């Protein structure tokens, strides 16, 4: 059955600083369908990780999360508003309904417990199950993830595994309670390129087997192209473009996305084509956002008097494809 | 195993040396600490002016007199004015800080510099010496040294100085090793700059901050330790007005005359608190990671 | 060194990850062996320090022993008797050989073997130190944990103010004040000694609490406990403050680490995250600090035993120094240093239990 699994409406996350509050995520709305893969793309500081932590309810004070609603359809068919759920009930969601994996498998696993202990801990908290049965489930998960000798690996500590194995163990831990949504926050960034491809392949396969939806966060458009059903591009805390992966890779109308695509190195690109084009300038400081379009100081389509005057709204440039640009009609790759 | 200094002071050379101190003073705790320490320094100087009696004057008629308008902190078993003796005791405490903390700083820096710069066998010997000194609980080491030199105020200060030497040695050695690894120091060595110049130009300025932090925190400890040795009868000898010796007097009479021990103890506590307040604030400033 | 290395790299790291966990055990033994060698080297150094401070610095032991009373003839006889006519190296070797058999000579004041004096006094100090360390840990760690849960709030501020007072406290003064308040004024607790006259338990271990328990006498046990409370609390103050501060700092540092976020993302309850993941990982540095308190405790014991008239090792050392009873000073110094180094080794080894990553120095 297809349908909406997660619906985030008007999410806003602020953090107080000495110079006043900064808005890390600003009025963000999106949906994820069952079994769908949504890739959130953006540079560091664009708010993509904060978004995922907000959905998990893991923004620690003094950070503040506001939202009209974060609706999740549970495995039991009930719809819950996560933004209003008490902490005790939220815990039942984490791990069981939504699981998360992180960028650094080395630091994201607790160094003082074995892999097995960490997986079993998650299973036993969410499901009434004997230690032996939980261990069997954990072993099964590791086998599913292509870890050789899974029984022995259960008793290994994180530092005794390679980076790729560690990330597999992380994924095994996340999937051990069969969540309906997996949030993967740059899970391959810290890995070697060959391992990266294996992990991507693995996530794609498991997604099919488990019928689960994935929110995949990356700054790498190449990775996005591999696995995305839909793509959401973020810049300075806002959605700047969203649409199907096809639509965006075929014909983005956003100068920022064009810039990102151009800066991805491609095979066959030889030395004669000159240096790899990079987007000039830096991600803006959230405390000193430029007036108007937040990207305009770095934009090659910048029109004085227009782009620096008014914050562009999200506009549909085609069915289901939204861009935040006042000049999108003139923009093309 | 050696532990490098946890104070990341390298690379902060652009700032004026007093800039961190100025920032530290924005904190209330540091202000309080500085006020206490300045008050303490003032008393050491002004003791003769403020003391109503000679600290050695015995007035047997007022022996064990409780605190009153005449004797603010009461009088001891010989009728000596406790207030005056506490005031003069601040001088012994200051002397202890200068002699013991100074000795530890000089000895420790010398060992650390020599070990860190010469490396090899010299360094190994220095570090084993440090290990051996650290193999004694610190007061026990002080006891052994006092036992060897004989109980006296000077010897107790020397003993405490030696006890604190290893900490400075480790700190300075860590700084030297860190500086040695810096590219511009390697470059300086490559073009033949003499070692002693590198030491003077790079190691000493970089070590300034951490050494100040350590010296401030140790100053408080030194006051407690020398007073402790005097309390045990191994430091200042009667009748000199030393806070620890005063406390020892008070110990003998505490059931009948609580004031003899109470006021010198408060004085020690106050001075140590002052130094600790400043030292803590300084340490946070130099290393925000170690907010303990 | 960065607190959280982003990627482990270099040949060392590769060697680590490629090692199978089977070989960790033999590595652990190699590490213990290496630490025992280090311990032996340090102990040799310690014995040299103890020997030379006593034998070389003050000039002449024989003179020291006889004081002003000695005639030249007595002096010469004693020198011969003590082997002081031999070269220093020979004297040192004889000292070490004898010391290895527990022979430090005869106490000049009690006329017993110096080592017997030390071993009689040691249990008193051991009981006091252990009691203080227990109090400091049992109160200090939870204080630090609770303070870290809401940094900057009322409890944290109160706790940190008290710990600052604690680390600044001259404990010989604190002991006197406690005596004055609870012993003399309120008369709740005894003002010194190990037990009331007639309540001494038969000596088995030398530790009054355990001996009373072994004797099966509740009244003796209660009496021994009452005598222990004030000295133990006095001695516990400074370590308690240190432990609370380091616990708070380490909890705060650990709480921001990635794996704690993972634990929360698994949906674990807050208490489980705090105890099982934050505290569990913060324990490694906390145990280091608890171990480091031993030096503080043994030093503080000297002062505490003086205030509360306890016949412990610290008091014995001070008395022996004051009466120039140098065999006892030597025996005591070597003994304490030995215990101290040994406990430090045990603390180091306890890391291997707490932190599976540490399998080598």
Q: How would you characterize the overall build of this protein?
A:
The complex is a heterotrimer of chains A (333), B (292) and C (361). Chain A has an 8-stranded mixed beta sheet, with helices on both faces. In chain A, strands 1, 2, 4, 5 and 6 form a 5-stranded antiparallel beta sheet that branches. By secondary structure, chain A is α/β, with parallel strands linked by helices. Chain A has 2 domains: 1-97 and 188-333, Rossmann fold (3-Layer(aba) Sandwich); 106-178, no CATH class. Chain A is 31% helix and 23% strand. In chain A, α8 (193-210) links the parallel β8 and β9 (213-218). With 292 residues, chain B is mainly α. Chain B has 10 helices and no strands. Chain C is globular and about 85 Å long. Chain C folds into 2 domains: 42-103, no CATH class; 114-360, MetI-like fold (Orthogonal Bundle), CATH 1.10.3720.10. Chain C is an all-alpha fold. Residues 1-22 of chain C have low confidence and may be disordered. Chains in contact: A-C, B-C. The interface between B and C is large, with 53 and 58 residues.
Please give a quick description of this structure:
The complex is a heterotrimer of chains A (about 325), B (about 290) and C (about 350). Chain A is built from eleven helices and 13 strands.
Which two chains form the greatest contact, residue counts included?
Answer: B-C, 53 and 58 residues
State the name of the first-level CATH class of the largest domain in chain A: Alpha Beta
The CATH architecture name of the largest domain in chain C reads: Orthogonal Bundle
Examine the coordinates and then state which fold CATH places here, giving the name of the CATH topology of the largest domain in chain A.
Answer: Rossmann fold
Number of helices of chain C: 14
Strand content of chain C: under 5%
Total discrete domains of chain A = 2
- Please give the number of β-strands of chain A: 13
Average of pLDDT of chain A: 86
Low-confidence stretches of chain A: none
